[in-house]
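Pilot study result, target chain (305 residues):
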Amino acid sequence: MEAGHSHAHGTATGHHRRRLVAVLVITLSVVAVQVVGGVVSGSLALLADAGHMLTDATGVAIALTAAALATRPATKARTYGLQRAEILAALANALLLASLAVWVIVEAVRRWDDPPEVATGIMLVAAVAGAGANLTSLRILRGGQGESLNVRGAYLEVLGDLVGSVAVIVAGVVIATTGYTRADAIASIAIGVLIVPRAWSLLREVLDVLLEATPRGIDLDQVREHIRGVPGVLDVHDLHAWTITSGVPALSAHVVIDDECIDGGRSGQVLDALADCLGDHFETAHCTFQLEPAGHAAHEIAQHD
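Predicted structure:
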C-alpha cells in the first residue's frame, strides 16, 4: 500500500517576494550611483563593489522569476511543477558570484604596477551611499533568510556588499590622506576574496539539494526510531529524505506492519499516526509511506536501510 499526503503549496522564496522586490529596487539604484562614481573617480574598488551589487541584483531578479515559475501547477510530465527552478536560480547566482570574484582579483593585480589616480571625494560619496543601502536591504531580508535558499543567498550577498562598501570607504580615506593609490587595488582584492567563500557556501547548499542529500536538521536515525515507535510498526527500510526546493522537504519509506493491523483493517490508522509523528517532530509535510506485511521485503529486488 502506498500513501502520500500534504503536498506543500507555494515556496519559501514566494512567501518573501515583496522583500526581494524592495531589495532589487534599492540595489539597482545604488549600482547606478556606484558605476557612475567608479567611472568618474577611476576607482576599481568602487566598480568592483558596483559589479558585486549588480550580480546580487541579477540573482534577486532570477530568484523572483524562479519563484513565479515555481507556483505553476504540477503536470503529468512534471509532477512537482517547476519548484526546482528556485534551486537552479540559486546555482546561477553562485556561479555569477564566483566569476565576478575572479575578474575583480585579476583586474586588481593588473593595476598593481600602474595604479591610476582616484578622485576620492566621488569615490567616498558613492561608497557611503552603497553602505547605507546595504544596511537597509539587510533589515528587509533578515526575516526571511532562514527559510529560503534564494533569500539567504540575497542576504549573504548584501552582507558581503556592506563589507565591500566599508572596504571602499577605508581605501578612499587612505588615498585621500596618504596618497597611497594602491589602496584601491587592495580593497578590490579584498572584495574579490570576500566573494569566494560566500559563492562556495551557496553552491554547496544548492548541490546538496540537486544531489538529494538529506536536508539539514533531519537525522534519519531519529526518524527511523520515531517510525518504529508507532504502534503496529515492526520495522522500516528504504528510508529516504530530500529537498524538493527551499522549505519543502520530502520523505519516503517502506514500513513493515504486523499482520493484526492488516487483518483488522487498521492500516489507515497506522498511516495517520506516521504522518502526524513526522509532521510534529521533523516538520516534514510531504511524506510517502509504503505499508507492507513482514514477508514482503523478500520480494523486493533491492533494499536499503
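One observation from the pilot: The longest helix spans residues 149-178. A full batch analysis is planned for the follow-on phase.
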